User: Fold NADP transhydrogenase beta-like domain-containing protein from marine sediment metagenome.
Amino acid sequence: MALIATITLAINKQIEPLGLALLIGAMAIGAAIGLWRARVVEMTGMPELIALLH
Assistant:
């Protein structure tokens, strides 16, 4: 829901360009960390991965 709200505000030009750049950067960093952890975790470590992603 937060992602939809952010996109809606960005489309309606209610977010400054610097704020939008920071949001996109933070999302990219979070996605990169999540993908890295998801690829290196073993199946027995799944509960810890889920806890990390929350």
